[in-house]
Amino acid sequence: MALVRAVTGCAFGNEHRMTLDGFLHPRSVAVVGVGRREGGVGRAIFDNLLAGGFGGSVFPINPSAGEIAGHPCFADVASLPETPDLVVVALPAGDVSAVVDACGSRGVPACIVISAGFKETGPAGAALERDMAERAKRQGVRLLGPNCLGLLAPHAHLNASFAVTMPPPGAMAVLSQSGALGSAILDWAQSRGRGLSAFVSLGNRADVSESDLLEAFDADPATKVVAGYLESIVDGPRFVSVASEVTPRMPVVLLKAGGSDAGARAVSSHTGSLAGSDAAYDAAFRAAGVIRADTMEDLFALAEAFARQPVPQGPGVAILTNAGGPAVLATDACEHAGVHLASLEKTTIDALRAALPPNSALYNPIDVLGDADAGRFRDAARILAQDPGVRSLLVLLTPQVQAQAVETARALAEVAASSGVTTLGCYMGEDSVEDGRRELLANDIPAYRYPESAVSALAGMERYREVRDRPRTSPPAVEADREAVRAILDAAKAAREAFVTEERAAAVARAYGIPTPRATLARNLAAARTAADEIGYPVALKIASPDILHKSDIGGIVLGITDPEELARAWESVLDRAQRRMPEAQIWGAVLQEMVKPGREVIVGINRDPTFGPLLMFGLGGIFVEVLKDVTFSLCPVSARDAAEMIAGIRSYGLLRGARGQAPADLDAVADVIVRVSALAADFPEILELDINPLIVADRGSGAVAADIRIGIGG
Amino acid sequence: MALVRAVTGCAFGNEHRMTLDGFLHPRSVAVVGVGRREGGVGRAIFDNLLAGGFGGSVFPINPSAGEIAGHPCFADVASLPETPDLVVVALPAGDVSAVVDACGSRGVPACIVISAGFKETGPAGAALERDMAERAKRQGVRLLGPNCLGLLAPHAHLNASFAVTMPPPGAMAVLSQSGALGSAILDWAQSRGRGLSAFVSLGNRADVSESDLLEAFDADPATKVVAGYLESIVDGPRFVSVASEVTPRMPVVLLKAGGSDAGARAVSSHTGSLAGSDAAYDAAFRAAGVIRADTMEDLFALAEAFARQPVPQGPGVAILTNAGGPAVLATDACEHAGVHLASLEKTTIDALRAALPPNSALYNPIDVLGDADAGRFRDAARILAQDPGVRSLLVLLTPQVQAQAVETARALAEVAASSGVTTLGCYMGEDSVEDGRRELLANDIPAYRYPESAVSALAGMERYREVRDRPRTSPPAVEADREAVRAILDAAKAAREAFVTEERAAAVARAYGIPTPRATLARNLAAARTAADEIGYPVALKIASPDILHKSDIGGIVLGITDPEELARAWESVLDRAQRRMPEAQIWGAVLQEMVKPGREVIVGINRDPTFGPLLMFGLGGIFVEVLKDVTFSLCPVSARDAAEMIAGIRSYGLLRGARGQAPADLDAVADVIVRVSALAADFPEILELDINPLIVADRGSGAVAADIRIGIGG
């Protein structure tokens, strides 16, 4: 019976797993832990539910009260007259699991645990949280929290939180891992009249995660943009996969804090030492098309722009101003953020000249002068909006005697509505333009105080347009001898090796089609001579022994052997020395290896990020990595297009493209190696780190060779 | 008579040249161009003067009115009953010069020209402005404007502007080159209750400049901090000299816009191509100790901090918060801005543990939890302020149910006042914490909305502390053979050469003690042999002829000659070839030159900035300059300490300090060359550009040699 119930619960839960309907569109809500007197979290939530005007049934649960605020009280979930879609729990941590069980028994699909006292308090709390989460899962109850503020769904007039603010219904869904920042966001939304479709405080995320919410918001017709604050991500790969699905349809703007949390993790590879967790988050957000906000202010600026205006249909902003100074600031900010000013057509300039007073500046930025009234702003905006090169309009207004902040806002709204050109307003100053800013907002034109914030928002919109419109490329299928790699890694794991030996690392690379120097194991001098002839002089000779790891320490390597005579001398000295120094060692002979011709040296590496898995790094070798840290990162798997972007993304790209009269390097060959390394890392999770350093790159058309490969394994 | 009056006027004017007392502390003010009816700029200014409550005499001037607003009207300046200290002119541009003349005749020391229609309208207006400025100067009248908003001096209740806002008296002086941004700043000050000591709209700066104002503000006991907006600087060297005097006594925060204005200027040197005017402004502000704001918002954030709180006595901030999220954001921002979190003493931690509830975070950041009231904030702040490592306190408050934003502000003010620890407040949210923010401001604690703004302000304060406390180093006297250089440059100028020949450039360098490869002119092969023996093989041989500029084009250079035999062959081939190719050329023989041993290659260059004069550039040579643009700039003259900072300031500094097991380069030798190049540029303004590229630097203790020097001259 218990089994049957669990299975049923699961089925029900899975249905809701997609939509989280129980949270966002409940028909009835029960609150557990509602005190008879005001004060106390449970009572506050119950009062908020009533005050919010929620249309469905609301049940207070308190075993010792008959009635609360005119609503009949119930002793527990079991004794409710109907099964609520949502149960909110505000009891001491120790009492929550029993309520979750009761929800499961009753078939309640969704439960919010407001209570603190779980993982955030230490190991005992963490155990309690795990137990609660397992019970919920087993019984098909989706669980938000614990240790959260609750949620609001303004379209349903649902305030299932202990926040007293209730923003108007709107198109923006907000999620926050921090309750406190959540309340600051709510306060901002409320004060700005910013409508929300949902506000969800994630808390400890024992069950419902940011990825679940993204799916739910995506399925919610009211939501057009998602904004959020996160300090970490629960399941990196799932997040990337879900967000990649969502972002082509709606912008997702996230502020991710805590850039330095992974600093303490011990790392031994180059790639690992350069890849803080922030590089992984950057790479993940880029891969998923998520727009990353740099600061809280930036989050608001971006969210406002996305919520209120259409994404510009292309690059090209016209700056319209009633003063020169702000236009200079805006132009500087555009240059800095990579936002291109539109070049106006001649007909536009002529029309502006006819419409504006003589001293106006007609070339972008367009200065309609300090005595401009709303009509002059309207005329200029209309003309600009008709220019095919103007895809967005940034209007700057400073408080001057003749300025009409409110009327100008209305005029701009008119032009924006009729033209469809993305329009952002920046009214500089405080009290004297505050009414004007409110009028802009009332007309769904985002209103900024500073040109830099407005430009930052516009830059975010343009970034989003690029992300949304980029062709979806899948990583190519890489032909590889996976069995060979499996055998090598298994053998290394069986031998408890942390690193694969050099020859085997080269064999792994070759199995994935990554060029390595030609090499042959020779068991005696005669075989070595034949091998050297085949490879072609100059060659290198390296002792081959399973017992000798650090070959150069015992003189086991000779480089640059130019003829058979030198080869003979090298063979004798290397083999002699090895036998003398390590008489116990099993010696297989020596490896004859091609000497790679000098070329530009780059590094391609893999580091495994704890959240997102394999993270691929690319950079120029040597000092560029060690001193300048001039590298780019990408999540795996990497497509050829991603690889090309990584290569072009380093500061020293000019050296590869061919600066100072040098021929361009074979970048296609580099991109190919990157794609193959990515496939290798994706196929074999036990590869914890990998450095190809250097990959020696010849001129265009002549390939690249992995001269040194290091592979660290585990797991 | 006219002459005598002019001289008297000048003397009077010079007295005011320092203090600008006529502007900031006038005893009487006349306004020229006051209309009988309201509306119109002159009338607005007159009404503002009256409304502001100015205590001295106020005279309206209008030839056709008997009385305006109850004040008897005068026909012109000449007919005033007393000589006013300040005359404000709001007449059409063409009528202003006559008023300036009248002011001169009457001995008026200060005149504000509000009128537009001058330089900003084109060449005719510029001529008008020049004429007006010359008249003013000749007659000893200081002139503010034209094309400006006017000025306010709140301590004197003086509003001599057409801005209607009048902020309370305070310690901050504001200057703005843009009237519109000026009005936004005034509006901000008014709305925030930000007291000002002065507000000055600079306009076209026909006479009074930002440097004049800095001097005046420095002399004004009411002013403790200067904030301003500039798009350019009138006299760069004077600005640097004045600001350097002012900034040790009070912080000067400037927003400089228009970073890309010099893009069009043609440049031919490496240094010139890398030094946009923004590099010069950065270098100038750094040299002068001016704190540069990046954005308008940053300007406000910094100005507020400086105006309201003492500069921290050292590094070490404690972050006190009622929520984790904001603390994470603040910590990220601190890391990013280089602001160090204080390490708390054990006694502090113990005291915090005793005072705070169990789950509080006791290590910096200190989280007093979401239910913290004002008393808990006070207790924690008191304990933190006693820790000797805590020099500043950043208090973050989010709107939570139990938060007491206003009471907390009072509690913090109490602790700040009694401890003297620099205290900044960041209340996140809008309406629900706005009262709290106002209470912070009322208690002279700067109040921010976002942790990032607060941290940016703190970072600016710490930067100022470093600037203020840095030892004043003067550039050392460089011993040099100035006559030799004078002769070379004069000869080159006489010959109308744009560039000094290679040998002469080397001679210039040697005259300033900059090591160059040893070189000797040999008139025949025998002399060449002797010279090569003296220099030591390998040597280079270069044709010497005043008629051959591009030596390598005609095969006039042979490098790496290793013995006398090769030398003979080289001599023959070079001299032969030159005579065959250029039979008319006068040939002196050939220069035998030392081949410099390979070393690390750096570039030291000079470019002459139109505003600030010689700008010195340092960077690693080759790709680091050409591809990575990894260079630092400094104004001349450069001290040894400045030079060391320039060297350490490049990203690739690790390569010079000795990365990858390399020995450190001889950085003292590089610094010495930088100082000598700086002295050379300062001594000879006709040197427009100079590149030492490369300066070949040997390992520590072994010197540096200027292998190639290019000197461009003019003027």
Structural account:
Two copies of one chain form a homodimer. By secondary structure, chain A is of the alpha/beta class. Chain A has four domains: 2-223, 3-Layer(aba) Sandwich (Rossmann fold); 312-467, Succinyl-CoA synthetase domains (Rossmann fold); 518-594, Dna Ligase, domain 1 (2-Layer Sandwich), CATH 3.30.1490.20; 600-713, D-amino Acid Aminotransferase, Chain A, domain 1, CATH 3.30.470.20. In chain A, 41% of the residues lie in helices and 20% in strands. Chain A contains 25 helices and 29 strands. In chain A, the strands form six sheets. Chain A has a seven-stranded mixed β-sheet with strand order 9-8-11-10-12-13-14, sandwiched between helices. In chain A, helix 14 (374-385) runs parallel beside helix 15. Chains A and B meet through helix 6, helix 12, helix 16 and helix 17 of A and helix 6, helix 12, helix 16, helix 17 and helix 24 of B.
What oligomeric assembly is this protein in?
Answer: homodimer
Distance between the termini of chain A: 39 Å
Report the sheet-strand fraction of chain A: 15-25%
Output mean pLDDT of chain A. 90
**Portion of residues within helices of chain A:** 40-55%
What count of domains describes the coordinates of chain A?
4
**What is the CATH topology of the largest domain in chain A?**
Rossmann fold
| C-alpha geometry of chain A | flat
